């Protein structure tokens, strides 16, 4: 199993409690994630038989998904594209966590449009998994409500919960 985190901050606690796990930092956003995953495939670090777990924080659009909870994204889409160009990626659920729909966004201000959470990388991973045939799993800890100022985020709580859940996936 390979774990991909957008930032070292998101990976830090998991590295502490699972030091032998394969962890890669992709960078923030769809472009950085796509480049990192493509490079891993090209170098033979991801094979079709692999499970690749994208892990990190996400924002929740409403109270139905609580801050501090950990969810599995089972459907992703890039909501900022015009509707006629939106691709929706769906994966089979891998865990017993709550399965949610997520919007992958490039910036602030995207509307939920039926999604429960938002992140900045997931659609890139799902698109590459579709192309290269590996198993993609996306696990997100909810650190904030979409639109809240950064000072209101519950990063430590979310990252601790994320690390605990990821540790059980092995």
Task: Tell me what the structure shows.
Helices cover 28% and strands 30% of the residues. Helix 1 crosses helix 4 and helix 2 packs parallel to helix 3. The protein has one domain: Nucleoside phosphorylase domain (Rossmann fold, 3-Layer(aba) Sandwich). It is globular. It has 170 residues and is an alpha/beta fold. The model has no long low-confidence stretch (mean pLDDT 93). The longest helix is centred in the first third of the chain and has 13 residues. A 5-stranded mixed barrel has the order 3-7-6-4-8. The N and C termini lie close together (7 Å). The protein is built from 4 helices and 8 strands; from the N terminus they run βαβαβββββαβα.
CATH H-level superfamily? Nucleoside phosphorylase domain
Distance between termini? 7 Å
Strand tally, please? 8
CATH architecture: 3-Layer(aba) Sandwich
Placed side by side, the strands forming the largest sheet appear as 3-7-6-4-8
Assigned CATH class: Alpha Beta
Task: State the helix count.
Answer: 4
Structurally, the number of domains stands at: 1
Could you tell me the mean pLDDT? 93
| Biggest sheet statistics | 5 strands, mixed, barrel
Radius of gyration: 15 Å
If you consult CATH, what is the topology?
A: Rossmann fold
Structural class: alpha/beta
Q: Which runs of at least 5 residues are low in confidence (pLDDT < 50)?
A: none
**Percentage of β-strand residues:** 25-35%
Global morphology: globular
Q: Share of helix among residues?
A: 25-40%
Task: Describe the protein's topology.
Layout: E1 2-5, H1 8-17, E2 22-25, H2 30-42, E3 51-60, E4 70-78, E5 88-90, E6 98-104, E7 117-119, H3 122-132, E8 135-145, H4 155-167
Parallel strand pairs: 1-2, 1-3, 3-8, 4-6, 6-7
Antiparallel strand pairs: 3-7, 4-5, 4-8
Helix pairs in contact: 1-4, 2-3
């Amino acid at each position: 199993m390979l774990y991909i985190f957008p930032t070292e901050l998101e990976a830090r606690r998991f590295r502490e409690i699972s030091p032998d796990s394969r962890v890669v930092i992709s960078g923030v956003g769809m472009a950085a994630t796509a480049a990192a995953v493509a490079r891993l495939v090209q170098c033979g670090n991801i094979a079709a038989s692999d499970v690749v777990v994208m892990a990190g924080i996400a924002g929740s659009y409403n109270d139905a998904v609580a801050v501090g909870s950990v969810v599995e994204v089972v459907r992703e889409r890039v909501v900022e594209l015009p509707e006629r160009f939106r691709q929706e990626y769906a994966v089979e659920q891998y865990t017993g966590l709550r399965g949610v729909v997520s919007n992958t966004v490039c910036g602030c201000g995207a509307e939920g449009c039926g999604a429960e959470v938002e992140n900045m990388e997931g659609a890139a991973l799902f698109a590459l998994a579709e192309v290269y045939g590996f198993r993609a799993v996306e696990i997100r800890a909810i650190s904030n409500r979409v639109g809240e100022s950064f000072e209101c985020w519950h990063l430590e709580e979310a990252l601790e919960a994320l690390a605990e859940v990821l540790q059980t996936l092995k």
